[in-house]
Amino acid sequence: MTTLTDHLSGPGNGQQGTAVSARGLQKNYGRGETTVAALRNVDIDFDAGRFTAIMGPSGSGKSTLMHCLAGLDTVDSGNIMLGGTDITKLNDSQLTALRRDRIGFIFQAFNLVPTLTAEQNITLPVALANGKVDPEWFGFVTSTLGLTDRLGHRPHQLSGGQQQRVAVARALLTRPEVIFADEPTGNLDSRVGAEVLGMLRRSSQEMGQSIIMVTHDPIAASYADRVVLLSDGQLAGELSNPTPQTVLAALAQLGA
After folding, report:
1. CA–CA separation, 182 vs 35, rounded Å?
2. Mean per-residue pLDDT for 135-144?
3. What crossing angle do the helices spanning 118-128 and 160-173 adopt, rounded to 10°?
4. If we measure between CA atoms, which residue out of 76, 7, 92 comes closest to residue 36?
5. 62 domain-assigned
6. Which of 50-59, 106-115, 119-128, 183-192 has the lowest mean pLDDT?
7. How many domains does the chain divide into?
8. Segment Disordered: which positions (predicted)?
9. Is 211 inside a domain boundary?
10. CA angle at 63 for the pair 75 and 191, rounded to the nearest 5°
11. Residue 82 belongs to a domain with what CATH number?
12. Residue 130: inside a domain
């Protein structure tokens, strides 16, 4: 019988060490008296093969940090290493290739193409890269996520939970080094949200996938191995093996 372990191969799986690290990150918005410091000299490491949540009050810099780590936004100073690559030294075309080939994304709004089937949405990143889909891995990912009988459906024919599962499958298909998830359950009810979070945790624990998730939800954060706390653009602590209660208590101390 095929198991998850049988599929642990590729750059995103079975990793050891650090998936992403950042040193001295500074990011400002605006100029002069209107300048807002979104990140203030942030030093942080994210272990490979682990599920990490980033949390903090509104305006704490958590989304900015994730967007910079993922190469979606630039920093004013500091360095970000993805594996052995300093992404702060890459130009736009190099960043585009890095995001396409080495990073997976899961967004709150799913970001599915409405005219494409579920299968076409899942394989879209591979098609855009003129690559070839590994049929065994595709079948494994889609069956694990319960999508086998939905592959011919377009997004409007799928429930919210099914659409997000398609987005998760799309992110996993290329075996990326890191998956960045931005409020992945924000548009889902609690039952379906728990299902998606359970899949993310399983992909980390059993597939060795590195996941970095921004969330405001203590319950969502409790699915992670670690919670990183931000306040006013600075690191404000972290939690290991979080529970909803310990996350709520930590956020209360930050005034969230």
Report:
1. 25
2. 90
3. 30
4. 76
5. yes
6. 183-192
7. 1
8. 1-20
9. yes
10. 155
11. 3.40.50.300
12. no
Nearest Cα to Cα of residue 232 among 55, 34, 30, 37: 37
Using DSSP's 3-state secondary structure scheme, residue 29 falls into strand
Mind listing the pLDDT tens digit for each residue in 169-225? 999 898 899 999 999 888 888 888 888 899 899 889 888 899 999 999 999 999 999
Residues 12 and 210: beta-carbon distance below 8 Å? yes
Spatial contact of 247 and 221, defined as CB atoms under 8 Å apart: yes
CA atoms within 13 A on the CB side of 114: 2
Q: Assess contact for 173 and 137: CB atoms under 8 A.
A: yes
| Range of the structural domain that residue 95 is part of | 4-109+177-254
The one-letter code for the residue type at 167 is: A
pTM (predicted TM-score) = 0.87
Q: Hey, what amino acid is at 56? A: G
Cβ–Cβ < 8 Å for 5, 13: no
